Amino acid sequence: xxxxxxxxxxxxxxxxxxxxxxxxxxxxxxxxxxxxxxxxxxxxxxxxxxxxxxxxxxxxxxxxxxxxxxxxxxxxxxxxxxxxxxxxxxxxxxxxxxxxxxxxxxxxxxxxxxxxxxxxxxxxxxxxxxxxxxxxxxxxxxxxxxxxxxxxxxxxxxxxxxxxxxxxxxxxxxxxxxxxxxxxxxxxxxxxxxxxxxxxxxxxxxxxxxxxxxxxxxxxxxxxxxxxxxx
Length: 231
Prior knowledge:
By secondary structure, the protein is mostly helical. The chain has helices at 3-12, 23-32, 38-50, 56-60, 64-70, 77-95, 101-104, 109-117, 124-134, 144-153, 162-172, 177-193, 218-223. The two termini are 16 Å apart.
């Protein structure tokens, strides 16, 4: 297990991601969270739930204009309504008339991923989020946080491709969905707390309040930040 994973787990504890009551809700959330904060997605999800539209059948019966109005808090709501409709069509094709998420996501990881990537509006990050968090398949998610942290630690070059970063993380871990889930969530938490766009390599004068990865971080070393002692 990578040392930086153990550091993050000790610093932040288990995260218990992804927020969602059903695989369908998780998949919808993965689409809605594109280019927006999760707090906005929560408002859109709440609207869908109140309208009885947080299921395949419930969402399918909605006119696209009504669907767009319900998800308005998530931003880009007209485009996202089209993406959700495309996802519903994919679910019906693979999961039958009931639009079973479980059946649609069944099969070899690579094949299901390629099928998802062919759906309008689903790129690699959204596809991997659906695979990992809705299907429980070991497909690591690369986002702004995982990209930033890998670059600052010196594990990847700035501008590394999505696939390069995905291979980097997956090579560092056993192919275990629960582990991928936890590691990704920990990286997101670290990106929010310490490794921000303007990083908090040392937030206070106390070494105990420094970034938990500072002593293994190339970026912190270049800044000349005093690092905490390795445990």
